[in-house]
């Protein structure tokens, strides 16, 4: 027996098309069709209205979340790696920094010099990595969509997202690299020259 409303749309199943796409309209139509089938001698035990999204929607959301977490972790680890490389680069140059400060260079000028170097490295990394990442992402999306029987009309990314990725790819490593740069440039001339 049916445990749903017995309201039947006028005209039976022939006019069973929902007037709108609302869930109430769909449920009303389904109940009407089920009652009509029962009146015609067919047994209807259950009415199941499927969700209004793709059957694999939940799985795809989990895949997207996983890829987002992996992308953020990769960016953060790349920034930490940049800071570590910068610290390693600055360690043998501490005395040179002391000499530059001794002949009149200010800490801000030395910071700008090393920040420009890290910025150029970041720009080169983004110029190489962003197009490759977009290409690999499209290939992965095509494979996943083919496996999940999904048709996508367009695989392009919004222009603003490319700019956000480029700024994050240059800015975040530069921000992390400023920590060892600031530490090296804040040392006094005497401390820097006595560094071994």
Notable characteristics:
mainly alpha; 6 helices; rod-shaped; disordered N terminus
Task: Characterize this entry briefly.
With 196 residues, this protein is mostly helical. 68% of the residues lie in helices and 0% in strands.
Task: Describe the protein.
The structure is a single chain. The longest helix is centred in the middle third of the chain and has 41 residues. With 196 residues, the chain is mostly helical. Helix 2 packs parallel to helix 5 and helix 4 packs antiparallel against helix 5. The N terminus is likely disordered. It is 68% helix and 0% strand.
Number of strands: 0
The backbone outline, from C-alpha atoms, is: rod-shaped
SS strand fraction: under 5%
What about the largest sheet?
A: none
pLDDT < 50 runs, ≥5 residues: 1-16
Quickly count the helices. 6
State the distance separating the first and last CA atoms: 88 Å
Would you tell me the structural class of the helices and strands?
mainly alpha
Mean pLDDT: 80
Helix content: 55-70%
Q: Any idea what the radius of gyration is?
A: 31 Å
N-to-C order of helices and strands: HHHHHH
Secondary structure elements and their pairing?
Blueprint: H1 23-39, H2 57-90, H3 94-102, H4 107-147, H5 159-185, H6 189-193
Helix pairs in contact: 2-5, 4-5
């Amino acid at each position: 027996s049916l445990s749903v409303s017995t309201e039947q749309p006028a005209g039976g199943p022939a006019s069973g098309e929902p007037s709108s796409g609302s869930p109430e309209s769909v449920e009303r139509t389904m109940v009407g069709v089920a009652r009509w089938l029962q009146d015609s001698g067919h047994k209807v035990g259950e009415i199941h209205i499927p969700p209004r999204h793709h059957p694999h929607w939940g799985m795809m959301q989990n895949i997207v979340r996983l890829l987002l977490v992996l992308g953020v972790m990769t960016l953060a680890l790349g920034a930490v790696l940049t800071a570590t490389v910068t610290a390693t680069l600055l360690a043998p140059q501490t005395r040179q920094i002391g000499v530059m400060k001794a002949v009149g260079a200010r800490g801000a000028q030395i910071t700008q010099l090393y920040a420009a170097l890290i910025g150029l490295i970041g720009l080169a990394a983004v110029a190489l990595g962003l197009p490759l990442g977009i290409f690999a992402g499209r290939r992965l999306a095509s494979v996943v969509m083919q496996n999940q029987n999904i048709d996508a009309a367009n695989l392009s990314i919004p222009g603003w997202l490319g700019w956000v990725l480029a700024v994050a790819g240059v800015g975040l490593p530069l921000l992390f690299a400023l920590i060892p740069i600031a530490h090296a440039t804040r040392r006094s001339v005497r401390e820097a020259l006595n560094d071994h």
